[in-house]
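Incident log, structure service

09:12 report received: a user says their structure output differs between two submissions of the same chain.
09:20 pulled the input from the user's history:
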Amino acid sequence: MKKDFFTNILFFMHICTALLGIMRKIYIYLLVVLVISTKNTVLSQDIHFSQIQESPLFISPAYTGFFNGYFRAIANYRNQWSAMGNPFKTMALQVDGGFFKNKKRNAFLGGGLTVYNDVAGVANFSILSIGLNVSGIVKLSKNSAFGIGLCGGPTTNNAKYPKLLFSQQFDGEKFDENLPTGEYYSFRKFTYTDVGAGLAYEYSTKKISEERDYVTLIKLGIGAYHINAPKTSFTTASDYRLPARFTFHTTGLFDISGTAISVMPNVLYQIQQPARELNLGTHVLYRFKNGTKITGEKKEIKAGLGIYYRNKDAFIAQLLFDMGAFAINIAYDYNISTYKIATKGTGGYEISIRYNILGDALFSQKSEYKNTK
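09:34 re-ran on a clean worker, output below:
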C-alpha cells in the first residue's frame, strides 16, 4: 500500500513539476496583462459558442482530458446574424483524451487539439487557429480531482481585401471600386503565436441503488487566453496587441434520486476588455434507458431541453440528444440587444456533434482515476 502511494506521488510530480514552474511564471505575467488590459480601450473580442457544455477546450485548457473516458471529439458549427447578409460562420473541432490513466494511478496526463475557423463579412475576414493542449490531472480524494493545463499554437488572419470599400471611393452617389482607396498602407495576411493556461476542479458523489448510481457533480474552471499579448495587425503601421481573455466557469450534474430526470446547469463569465459576457442557464435531462449495471453492455440514452440567457444579448434554446458514445446538440439564439432592430430578433443557430469513448458505459461520472480499488 505504501509503495503504491509513493509511486503515485512520484508519477504526479514528474507530470506536474514542469507545468507548475511554467504556470507560476505565466500567472504572474497574466496578472500584469490583466492590469494593463483594463487601462486600455480595445475593440477586439474572441469567438464564442452558445453551447457552453460543448466547448470545454475553449473555456479552459485544464479541461483537457478532464472527463469520464479515454477519448472525446466535438465538432461545432455556428451561423450568426444571417438576417444582415454575410453572416459570421464559425467552425471548430476539439479533440482530447487521457494518457497513463488506470485504476491504480491517482494522476494522469491529458492531451488535446483545437482547431477553429471564423469567417465574416463581404471581404471574408477569417481567423484560422490551431492549438495543442496539455494538462496534468490528479485525484485529491475519493470524490475530488484537480487539473492544470496549458495551450498554444499559431493563428492566421486573412481577408479578400479587394472587396473592401472605403469612404474615398464614394463619388457622391455610389461607391466606385475603381477609385483609389486613400489608404497609405497595404493590407496583409499575418500569423501570430497564442498561449493560454487554466485550472479546473471537480467534486462528485454517488448514491448507490440497484438500477443505477445517482450522481451529484460540481465542476469549476478558470481559463486565460492570449496571455502573451500577441501582436495583431492587418498593416505594418499598427502595433495593436490582442487583449487577454479570462473565463470563469461552473457546471454541474444533479441526478434526482428515484427518477429519470437530471439537471445540468452552466454559468460562464468572460472578460476581454472592454467586453464582458455572462451566459447562464440549465438543461433538464430525461433518461429513456438506464445502463445495465451488472454487465455494462448498454449505455444510457437521454434527451434534454436547455434554456440559457446571455446578458443583454440573447435568449438561447437548446435541444440535446445523448446516446452515450454519440450526442448532438442544437441551439438557437433569439437576439434581444439593441441590434435586434437590424436583425429583427434573429440571432443565429448552432450545432455540435460529440463522440466519446467513455470510461464506463453505465455511469457518466464514474471515472477510473477516481476509483479507490
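09:41 both user submissions now match this output. Likely a transient worker issue. Closing.
09:42 reviewer note: Residues 131 and 147 are 18 Å apart (CA to CA). The helical segments are 2-37, 340-343.
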